[in-house]
């Protein structure tokens, strides 16, 4: 199993972007963000950030997470594994809309899965590209 990359707040080389319902905090300022899927508003806000990488911290109501235990065996292949975690995540939280899901192991039988609505992910990716600040989600 490949090593898990951990997020560290100690890095000063990157801007931090806090996203919450109705607002975005970046560059020491709070900006209203009535519609987080608005590509125009998000693109304009991203242009105000300092150049370089940024860490995004998204409120858990917008990007929920679930701890999944007792997973004995995972499907072979990256695509099958992604589909399994997406299905398991949506089942665990009773979600109707499609989510982009990432999962990391926490111990021998437990995984932490976090998801972002697929439509929101696509809107954020397009807005970041438009602002010249591409992101990977």
Secondary-structure blueprint of this entry?
Blueprint: E1 15-20, E2 22-26, E3 29-33, H1 39-46, E4 54-58, E5 65-68, H2 78-93, E6 99-105, E7 111-117, H3 118-130
Helix pairs in contact: 1-3
Task: Please provide a written account of the structure.
- The protein is α+β, with helices and mostly antiparallel strands and 137 residues long.
- Helices cover 27% and strands 28% of the residues.
- Helix 1 crosses helix 3.
- The longest helix is centred in the middle third of the chain and has 16 residues.
- The two termini are 21 Å apart.
- The N terminus is likely disordered.
Runs in which pLDDT lies below 50 for 5 or more consecutive residues are 1-11
Number of helices: 3
The separation of the N and C termini measures: 21 Å
User: Helicity range of the residues?
Assistant: 25-40%
SSE string, helices as H and strands as E: EEEHEEHEEH
Q: If strands are numbered along the chain, what order do they take across the biggest sheet? A: 3-2-1-4
Q: What general outline do the C-alpha atoms trace?
A: elongated
Radius of gyration: 16 Å
Please state the average pLDDT score: 83
Q: What's the total count of β strands?
A: 7
Tell me about the biggest sheet?
Answer: 4 strands, mixed
Given helix and strand content, the structural type is alpha+beta
Strand content: 25-35%
């Amino acid at each position: 199993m490949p090593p898990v990359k951990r997020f560290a707040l100690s890095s000063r080389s990157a801007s931090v972007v806090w996203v919450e319902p109705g607002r975005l905090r970046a560059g020491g300022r709070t900006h209203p963000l009535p519609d987080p899927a608005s590509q125009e508003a998000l693109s304009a806000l991203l242009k105000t950030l300092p150049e370089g990488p940024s860490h995004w911290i998204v409120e858990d109501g917008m990007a929920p997470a679930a701890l999944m235990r007792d997973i004995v065996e995972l499907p072979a292949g990256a695509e099958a594994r992604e589909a399994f975690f997406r299905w398991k995540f949506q089942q665990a939280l009773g979600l109707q809309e499609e989510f982009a899901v990432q999962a990391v192991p926490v111990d021998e039988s437990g995984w932490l899965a976090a998801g972002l609505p697929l439509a929101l992910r696509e809107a954020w990716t397009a807005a970041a590209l438009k602002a010249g600040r591409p992101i990977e989600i």
